[in-house]
Write a structure and sequence with these properties.
The structure is a homodimer of 327-residue chains.
Chain A lengths: L9 H9 L3 H12 L3 H10 L7 E6 L6 H14 L4 E7 L9 H9 L7 E7 L7 H14 L4 E5 L5 H8 L3 E6 L5 H11 L4 E4 L7 H14 L15 E4 L8 H16 L6 H29 L2 H9 L5 H11 L3
Parallel strand pairs in A: 1-4, 1-5, 2-3, 2-4, 5-6, 6-7
Helix pairs in contact in A: 1-2, 1-3, 2-3, 2-6, 4-5, 4-10, 6-7, 6-11
């Protein structure tokens, strides 16, 4: 397999990545994450071929065993010779450069297998928004032949929930026993779930927790904001990432959801959300670039310090920057 | 105290809120959160008086006992007759309207005390960004006489970390014993900490955990990204929100940090970050409003569906919207 020795245009990177170069694919994803111009060229070239993949969000509170479950799903997909990619959205430090979630899955996967591609993305510092970057990365992976793409997030922050919204199918993972504050998060997460997995079925209490969840979900349909569409009622499954029990059934359930949608005429809401996240990210980049470039010429930093000193209110500062753009 | 019976302009709300009406203050914060025009008027009027408050971020992984600790800090501040406000950034459901963090603190505070003001904010759905809304809410509270403002967040998501960045002082709270995934988050959180509190000192292991943390932090200064300023070394304290042990010492440490800064000539980085978050939020609102308004006139939804169907790439869609703005 030819690996380009040096950089190159986005279109060239795209061609090499589609041709099977994992190094080109890695570099392309780096370009996407840093929103470099090469990424724009590549994405324009790849996008027509990026349809059809199943993007599955795997989320849930810390401690639910998501990484182990994703590793078991990857192993199961590989046993059926399916190429599979993982985007692990990592809440760890930008300074230490940590990539905990991705590393954990990687440890359990076969590093020599070119049809498993695992990528860690830091959850901070995405200028066009984490959801936009993640949607673009998934499009690149889809165009490179990965028909099954897992996005793993820790489902507690706003941006992580936005990332879940761009998945075709969302799986919420939890352990049988979980604390008080985590319950609160779960309430928000359950609303976005297509499938809830009570993981760690190797421990006691998993079946009982699943039963309780099913009855909670059956009751939960009546309240809530009437202006929003009725949330779907998710399927509740029991699995163990550790022993792989229940994992074939989980993957089969995901495939069924994907196939049911493929037969539908309607554009799937998640695909539209993904499109919107990408377009909003691009537009946010452009406007931010214009505004701060205009501002930098005329001392934005000084302007911000005046706001910080309460000599100027933030709306007045926004007016000054806005007017400099000639509006 | 006069409570206005109906709505009114932002300037009027601002006047009533400064005059001591807690109802006007609540309505003003609602206006800020929904980014209504009234909020803009009010903030323009209040901003000159919004300097000087100490904005303290309280963050950390779930299960560390943040709410109990905040309640103990509030009680301590009230014992010294200091007005104190809490903004609890709540990760719970927008459908169920849950407000778990705020409610927990409220349960432990004195509901009849007008000098304690507790506000829950959902962490989702802030158009101008959560950091911008939180900074504006803190400015409103400061102008209404709250010299000590706690912002409580669950420190696991990108937006929560951004919120921590706008606090003058950041306290990271953790329990003596914490899991593996949480360690990863902590690494990122420790970099932003001015003070680390090992909470739940009523349980065994707190002193040992604090010792371990101190030695980790003493070692941690060497690695990392050399282009970033050396992270400060946080103070490590042991406390119990439950018994209030260590809470007077914690509040005293916070006051010392605030006073040390007040004597400095330099504008404090957090104040500039707060200013920038507000201005960026305002500008993001304006550009988004312009772009999507222009788009809606000419079928943005159809455009997004074409992107979702991979008939159009997202950059081409962005070009179309951008050009409609006459650039």
């Amino acid at each position: 397999m030819a690996e380009p020795a040096t950089g190159g245009s986005g279109a060239r990177l795209a061609q090499d990545a589609r041709g099977g170069s994992r190094r080109a694919l890695s570099r392309l994803l780096t370009a996407v994450e840093s929103r470099s111009p090469a990424a724009e060229d590549a994405l324009r070239a790849l996008y027509p071929a990026a349809g059809g993949a199943h993007v599955v969000g795997i989320t849930g509170p810390p401690g639910g065993g998501k990484s182990t479950l994703v590793a078991a799903l990857v192993a199961r997909a590989r046993a059926a010779s399916r190429p599979v990619a993982v985007l692990a959205i990592d809440p760890s430090s930008p300074i230490t450069g940590g990539a905990i979630l991705g590393d954990r899955i990687r440890m359990q996967a076969h590093p020599a297998d070119p049809d498993v591609f695992i990528r860690s993305m830091a959850s901070r510092g995405h200028l066009g928004g984490l959801a936009g970057t993640t949607a673009e990365s998934a499009a690149v992976l889809a165009a490179c032949g990965f028909g099954l793409i897992f996005i793993e997030t820790v489902g507690t922050g706003q941006s992580e929930v936005e990332v879940a919204a761009i998945a075709d199918t969302t799986v919420v993972v939890q352990a049988p026993e979980m604390g008080d504050e985590i319950q609160a998060m779960k309430a928000g997460l359950l609303e976005v779930a297509d499938v809830v997995v009570v993981n760690k079925a190797d421990r006691p209490g998993a079946d009982r927790a699943a039963m309780q969840l099913r009855s909670t979900l059956a009751l939960g349909g009546e309240g809530g904001d009437p202006s929003r569409p009725r949330p779907k009622r998710p399927e509740v499954l029991v699995a163990s990432g550790l022993t792989a029990a229940g994992v074939p059934e989980l993957l089969a359930a995901l495939d069924r959801l994907h196939e049911a949608r493929a037969g539908s005429e309607q554009p799937h809401a998640a695909r539209v959300a993904r499109a919107r996240a990408q377009v909003e990210g691009i537009l946010a980049d452009r406007t931010r670039g214009l505004l701060w470039a205009a501002g930098a010429q005329a001392g934005t930093d000084e302007l911000m310090e005046r706001v910080a000193a309460h000599e100027l209110d933030p709306y007045a500062a926004a007016d000054i920057l806005w007017n400099r753009l000639g509006r």
